[in-house]
Amino acid sequence: MEAEKNLRKEISEKLKDETLRDALGRFSEAYPIARAKAYENAGDIEALRDALRRMKIDTVARIGEVADRFEAEATKRGAKVFRAKDGDDLKAYLVDLCRKKGVKKIVKSKSMAAEEIHLNPYLEAAGITATETDLGEWIVALAGQRPSHMVMPAIHLSRFQVAEYFSKELKEDIPPDIAFMVQAARKELREKFLQADMGISGANFGIAENGAIGLVTNEGNARMVTTLPRIHVVIIGYEKLIPTIKDAATILKVLPRSATAQLMTSYMTMIAGPTPAMVKKDGKWVEEEKEMYIILLDNGRLKAARDDKFKEIYQCVRCASCLNVCPVYTLIGGHVYGHIYAGGIGAILTAFLHGMGEFEKFHELCIGCRRCTTVCPGKIDIPGLIEELRIRNVKEKGLPFVVRQLFENVISNRKLFHSLLRLASVGQKPFQSGKLIRHLPLFLAGIAKDRSLPAIAALPLRDRIGKIAKKIDSPDRRVAFFSGCTIDFVFPETGESVFKVLQDLNMEVLFPEGQGCCGKPVIAMGDVETTKKIAIDNIKALEEMNPDVIIAACPTCTESLRHYTELLKDDPEWGPQAEAMAKKVREFCSFVAEEYTKRGWLTKSAGGPKVTYHDSCHMKRVLGIDKEPRRLLEATGCELVEMKDADKCCGMSGLFGVKYAELSMPILEQKINNIRDTGAEIAACACSGCMVQLQGGLDKQLPGVKMKHVADILAEQIKS
Amino acid sequence: MNTKGEAWKRHFPTATSGAHLFPEFEMRAKAVSGEVFRVPDAAEARETLLRLVDGVGAKKAVVVESPLQEAAGITEALRSRGITVYTEPADIAAHAETADIGISGVEFGVAETGSVFQDGGAIATRLVTILPPLHVVFLPSANIVPGITEAFDIISQSFDRGYVGFITGPSRTADIERVLTIGVHGPNRFAIIAVDETPKGGEA
Asked: What is residue A270's three-state secondary structure?
């Protein structure tokens, strides 16, 4: 709880930090465009990503062998390799080495692994001066802060702030002129390079074939660090190892393009074994063989390599593109994530490198929008891994008492849950202050300033079935409609639209009374056991009607129903039934588009209102459905106008939108602004979660624009 | 790769590489603030270098020889201009930091990225490439490979030990407010003199 309070405090501070908000805002606008341009001459991006993924999967499967070869080849060429099991091990070795070699002054080029184990303070305490020479790292060190981004450590600071830190360090008045400051840094750090006894670098990759390390840099500091001092120490994590020299090309095709939108950084350097250095002896410069030490850092990495799911973190090349597209990171920056690795990937790395305690503090900041999965060069399923970590965490430690009570006794008990919802429709006010309410599905939670939350409908969909269900003789198909809680209790009119559209297609629509919550809010919190109970109840209710097809008009419900297969795969009784059911599950828009195509109805017509379509994260990136809803809208005669970032999260993401309303609101505001810019009369979407968020935002901020589900727009065209 | 940096030549893919890739290489190198001068022969190469030297008013140069430079008589030309030239490792170590210009040869260029590949196994080469504010390299204009993948076909067959890499434009940073600033720790100018004529003896 204390941790959560600190996190909230930090979030609110970051949201107030205009410099940070401005810098990240501009960056998140510029990055996707710059990245796309950098890949223009790279060939097939997907093929490059697949190649990297395959290479890394192959490597981690035999990481022990690859590490042995790396060590043997590096040793053969004269380097000394030390394997450090953790930060303490590494630090003890390094300080001992410094003592033996009389090292007092160290220059460092960037090493995230060194940041990870807090190396610098330890060296300082041992009387050794370590100077960061990457400009961003140096600035952050002068500021006494941590990097807020893996590639751009000082992105959160303005030139004015940097000038202050420089003035203090250099003891002269440094103007906030960027070119001037860079030159001041060059001058100051040049002296450090020339005087240092030891250079410490990280590595972007380590090649087993010849024991080489690779460095991908822009400033030239890594070349200085690895060239000038007589001793070179490399700190490299196991995940950076690759089998062959050619494999480096696989990384280099994507790393600069994804990280900084460069085709290649200014310097790409590979070093195999010690090379000569110039050492001054008795006033004369003489050539001497350098000493090279390579420290292979474990610190949780080898455990991850043995983990069937989490070996995926080896696919990370630290380009940080996942942060650059993350709706939450680009609002608040990296410091909030508590540790050295920020964003979704940061949460995962932290779980392994620093333990679950750290992970627990900020995993909720991943909203599962999956935008990162579209850019990650190693194709890591970051949100999927976070969900898996939550599940493991709950298995190990259980859920907080109130949440557990709620999940085990309320949401998984449909009758009780639904009667609570009905009660809420009558007395919404007093109910909202109750203790349980904060954890109930989003529409029962508190009101946010820039978003009205929709009221629970007076009459849920389930009570309207008698009026809307038509008897259809010899139907084309018998369809069971899985409405989900939100359509049932908040948007029953949309449920009616679904009935109307499907019945118009000569389908018999059934509403299984026994259906309840799809289980998404529960599994999202990591509670597998309760989700299983929910799943079984839903399978019973749906299959009882023996439908040909099961339709959900919400991508999250669709995904949850299909996920029952995985959830119950070890259950001999329900596993096969879950699988059989999952095959029938269809998302509304894609199903209707298919049926319209069969009938020749999916043709563009004109004369309708101007509509813009919001892609739900799960609709587009989990189900892969983005064209069908647009074609359907155009078929009704709507004039479709695309909004900017149509597929960027609206900020709801289940409980996140409520629990972290302060983060959800600015994301929503961007969405509303993008809708406004289109001049559309209607904002359409096809996800009930997004509907809650968009309706709330439009109501407060853009009341002239109506929010409609695609089903509603289709139903309006049907003469009853 | 041996210290003379010759091993890569045996693996240079003559079929896919060549001067026809030069325009793309030039465009990419210039896009990252590299200066590119393509010249027909050694005499023009020398004149181009002297113009660069005059432009910065260089008084002191550190030079690592390469066949193209020798063919063009670069070191002699600099000296006859009154410029102090250092070519020995010990002298380079003593003077690279205060030199106005560093000069070296590179092995080949990469069209996809505008990079040049250099074997920096010799300490003198690394000092010359990184310390002075202007770094000029000599490149045979026919030695251009299409992309990173092709470059690594060569590297993977010739790089056994030592210090090799790509140089792509001058050193740069965007660490303050993401404003691109050229010239941080390494050179703030990077010039490529690409020579069409192959020096006598048949090898570039």
From this structure: strand
The token pair that represents A367 in the structure block: 């909203």
Q: Do B172 and A139 touch (CB under 8 A)?
A: no
Residue A8 has pLDDT above 90, yes or no: no
CA dist B195 and A661 (Å) reads 63
φ, ψ of residue A561 to 5 degrees: the values are: -60, -40
Contact A275 B114 (CB under 8 A): no
Tokens for A148?
A: 């807020």
Residue B72 CA to residue B63 CA, distance in Å, equals 13
Q: State how far the Cα of B111 lies from the Cα of B150, in Å rounded to an integer.
A: 10
Beta bridge partners of A682: A611, A706
Residue type, A197: D
Q: Which of A178, A226, A246 sits opposite B152 (nearest CB)?
A: A246
pLDDT digits (tens, 9 = 90+) for A101-135: 999 999 999 999 998 999 999 999 999 999 999 99
Helices (H), A17-44: 18-38
pLDDT at position A429 over 70: no
Calculate Rg over the CA atoms of chain A: 29
Identify whether the C-beta of residue A510 lies closer than 8 Å to the C-beta of residue A546: no
Q: Residue B159 to residues A244, B39, B165: CA-CA distances in angstroms?
A: 11, 30, 10
Cα separation, A487 vs A472, in Å, equals: 23
| Tens digit of each residue's pLDDT (9 = 90 or more) over B102-120 | 999 999 999 999 999 999 9
> Letter for the amino acid at A543?
E
Chain B partners within 8 Å of A181 (Cβ): 176
Q: Which of B116, B153, B184, B188 to mutate to test the interface with A (most CBs of A within 10 A)?
A: B184
Computed on alpha carbons and rounded to an integer, the radius of gyration of chain B in Å comes to 16
- State whether B160 and A154 contact (CB < 8 Å): no
Contact list, A265 vs chain B (CB under 8 Å): 168
Instruction: Supply the pLDDT for residue A452.
Output: 66
What tokens were used for A473?
């003789």
How much of chain A, in percent, has pLDDT values that exceed 90? 74
Strands B115-119 and B162-167 come out as antiparallel
Chain A residues with beta carbon closer than 8 angstroms to that of B97 = 190, 194
Helix (H, G, I), strand (E, B) or coil at A327: coil
Query: What's the pLDDT tens digit per position in A290-317?
Result: 999 999 999 999 999 999 999 999 999 9
